[in-house]
Amino acid sequence: MTERILLSSPHMGGTEEKYVQEAFDTNWIAPLGNNVNEFEKQVKEFTGSKAACALSSGTAGIHIALDLLGVQKDDVVFCSSLTFIASANPILYLGAKPVFIDSDLESWNMSPIALEKAFKAYEEKGKMPKAVVIVNLYGQSAKMDELMAICDKYNVPVVEDAAESLGALYKGKMSGTFGKFGIFSFNGNKIITTSGGGMIVSDDEEMIQKALKKATQARDQAVHYQHSEVGYNYRLSNISAGIGRGQMEVLEQRVNEKREIFNRYDEALGAIDGIEMMPELADTYHNRWLSTLTVDSEKMGVTALEVVEHLAENNIEARPVWKPMHMQPLFAECDYFCEEEDNSKYLYENGICLPSDTKMTMEQQLFVIKKIKELI
Ligand SMILES: *Cc1c(COP(=O)(O)O)cnc(C)c1O
């Protein structure tokens, strides 16, 4: 095998160029136009959200959501610890303080027990968080019923970071539609891509109108250029949205392919004592954006990192699970709440993301499996 086997790469469906060409034909080479409108409509229809606004990135979506929820300097925002840094960076953009919450081992996502602990501690301090950022890691929905019940009890709004979980379901409802705001990412490595882009969704149409205003420099309704609040330049280009339109047509197909990839790994490796595949919570539908597992190094005689390195030597791209935010130098001063044990640290130290590229051939996947088995 000479060709590199990738973790997750862009996979075009075929109609993307037609929509991009449409943008050229009509000269809508701008961060607005028909592709943007149609792409938003598709995401609304697919997710069942009442309103959507296309943005230049998922990070921009989280930034705008927190801004609209009134997060300001020295405010506190709770956030999942086991995630990519983009979930937490916007908290810093607003001068607020992140407090990190551990995962549970059933969902790998925010633990309701740890969240309750954090609320109790901050209630005692007399400092309620302004928002909670809940991440749906690798395409698995968090325990939304339990988490929403806690946030509702304390009357704190939720931003659902569904950057990795477009197409996943929780009790029959689309991931990203549980919080006050949901955020999707169309970065190059995500389940579908616009080469770079994002979307903010909500059932509050007025809030999405405000998001649109924020994303376009917060211009007041006036012929002259007038501004009364801070805004950003965060709108999605009509060219990128053209790619998004084509990608939405193959989203369900991609979810099916991702799940097939996971099932093949599961069949080959799942029964091995010492390997634990990432679970799928009961009554949820995982989009399996990345196939992930943990390796018990004592039972297996190898560490997760050694597996990743062995695969790299064979031109296979695998990765450790995200390094938790509470272990990052950037957030060394931040508070962290876990259950009894530090689960996200365990998942980071023992977890592996396997190649989950939908362009990967069956032969290539069997090669990956062979290389893993060879080592253990
Ligand atoms: C990719 C990602 C983001 C950010 O999306 P961008 O479009 O790259 O800005 C946010 N959160 C998580 C969990 C992600 O994986």
Automatic annotation (TrEMBL):
One of its GO terms (molecular function) is transaminase activity. It comes from the Bacteria. InterPro entries: DegT/StrS_aminotransferase, PyrdxlP-dep_Trfase, PyrdxlP-dep_Trfase_major, PyrdxlP-dep_Trfase_small. Keywords: Aminotransferase, Pyridoxal phosphate, Transferase. Belongs to the DegT/DnrJ/EryC1 family. This is Aminotransferase class I/II-fold pyridoxal phosphate-dependent enzyme. It comes from Jeotgalicoccus nanhaiensis.
